[in-house]
Amino acid sequence: MDRTNPATGESLEPIPDDSEEEVDAALDTATETFATWKDVPVTKRQQLLANAGDVLRENKQEYGELMTREMGKPLSAAVSEVEKCAWVCDYYAENAAEHLQTERRPGPAHVEASVSYEPLGPILAVMPWNFPFWQVFRFAAPHLTAGNVGLLKHASNVPGCAQAIQEVFEEAGYPEGVFQSLVVHSDEAESVIEDDRVQAVTLTGSARAGRSVAKTAGENLKKSVLELGGSDPFVVLDDADLDAAAETGAQARTLNAGQSCIAAKRFVVHTDVYDEFLDKFVSAMDDVTVGDPTDEETDIGPQAREDLMEDVHEQVQQTVEEGATLELGGEPLDRDGFYYPPTVLTDVPRDSVAATEEVFGPAAAVFEVEDEREAVEVANDHHLGLGASIWTRDLDRGEEVAHRIDAGMTFVNELVKSDPRVPFGGVKDSGYGRELAVHGIEEFVNKKTVWVQDADGNEEDVDVTIE
């Protein structure tokens, strides 16, 4: 795997790919390990996960620096990401047993009916580069603790992060083979999904990648969970706190250099407050400091790859050609590395690139709407449906609007975020299935009905033999 430091454009030491033989051996190891790991008491698995959280905290600076080198995340944000990974370990270390507890179901007097939650086996996780530790740990923490074993196919520009994550679990005391990183390219993932030793797959990535993974998994009748892209609306109603909305909106658009599926991308603003909000928002975006990701004063670093920077710029240019007005930014920075500035577009046509595609960089499209009804219409006018943020001083109104937005997650007076305590995922082309909370840990388990009946029992009132 070739690597490039996006802050400087300089090459990093490459990491050797795994051979076909090494991948095959890893799959064998996963299968053999699962045979014993699934029977390890959940309390023991929880303790090992707590250990992993400790390892993360002890090495957060080292892991943060690795992320910064490989994909350009500001160091302070990278360290915070490691701390969040420790948090998800803490959450499932405390709650997994309760989430997986056998559930008693009603039945006749002579029957004990229950549902047990039993692991499936080796699970493949195909993960992206933008949150190279967090995306992996929100998969691994619940599903290893449920008794599955994990195989990671990470993005090709963060192989060092992939290796470091495997080392976290090893240092925490997990048996060999419970979590393995496969250093392979994307075109090799299909054969791993098809392999009989892999029982299910989860992907975080683009809608295009999701369709490919879902097709392969479906053809092989394997469970899949897809967390795909987003073009999240940020709805500012006429009674919003405009200072808070503008400040949080700038943060929501530029977090991780705008390279986040749950970043606010389309700003839908009521006409009565449009001009005032726009002034505040442009000012807040202009105040964002772009620079060296190792500098504590930096808010956003470079785009993770040169081609990604070029993609964002092309989308901005095309949207302007289609009739939008450029209020701020709009040109790559003239410096080493792959830097794109905070950018604001107004008068954005509803059928333009910035309105219809996901813009994976710090460029915001702002739309003016006449009323709440039109705000909801514009918010829902997209093939993606991951998250949404609604801003209003009337909390009842905010909650009512939140239920009218086509999204997997809606936040009132807050940016969209992931939290171990609540489920994460989308609708429409943003994918299916959920991560985190109890809903996430249940995705890769066999919800097995167990019916235990007294041999002398007899149920006369209903014929239950018909399928």
From TrEMBL:
InterPro entries: Ald_DH/histidinol_DH, Ald_DH_C, Ald_DH_N, Aldehyde_DH_dom, ALDH_GabD1-like, GABD/Sad-like. Keywords: NADP, Oxidoreductase. Coiled coil: none annotated. GO terms for molecular function: oxidoreductase activity, acting on the aldehyde or oxo group of donors, NAD or NADP as acceptor. Residues 1-20 are annotated as: Disordered. SUPFAM superfamilies: ALDH-like (SSF53720). Residues 2-450 form the Aldehyde dehydrogenase domain. PANTHER family: SUCCINATE SEMIALDEHYDE DEHYDROGENASE [NAD(P)+] SAD (PTHR43217). Belongs to the aldehyde dehydrogenase family. This is NAD-dependent succinate-semialdehyde dehydrogenase. The lineage of its organism: Archaea, Methanobacteriati, Methanobacteriota, Stenosarchaea group, Halobacteria.
